[in-house]
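Q: What structure does this chain adopt?
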Amino acid sequence: MFMVLDRVESAVWHAFDFLALEPGGQARKSKLKVLTASFGHILDIPGSESGIDDYRSTDTLTFEQYRFYLKNEVFASLPDKLELEAQILVEEKLENVCWLICKQPYTERGNPLFSEKCVKQLWRIFCMLAELTHDEDTNSLQVIMAAREVELVCQQFLNCLGNSESWEPETFDEIVSVMPVFKFSIFLALLESKYAKELIFIFNLRITCG
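A:
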């Protein structure tokens, strides 16, 4: 079912991006086979990774090539329709695998204010709202969130913590003037450095997500 792949595509990209250590943003097939086998285990598709070696006469794949393989050789094996609860559970399990692979740079940063649990929740929100776009500078696909979406999340973040009065649209507009789109690392840094840091001093506690 292609709908499932579409809904977890941003999460898959993050896992791929962490594994893509080769020039041109490519990942070695040996690493992608492990990731694909994990997907296959969740989807109950044994041997889902077995065709990667024969797919293209290269040792590495770009994300676009890997996505094509997943779409046609893995997710195409799913039934046309899944019950909503089953689909949500599958998507969550797939995202968990991707998070386990890509979380290191986000959870092992210096002087974190958010707990790992909170960072994961923010990452899932980011993946849900972000878009897969082509970056002309790197000639590769990137997952980014538009400034408008980031603005809404930041406002909601402050509202939920009872500090909506600290929202300053002019300040956010200044940030957007130099940062019109956000990767997750920048999105996380913005929340911690600009909006969460002030709340730490106000409440004198470490922010966690329940």
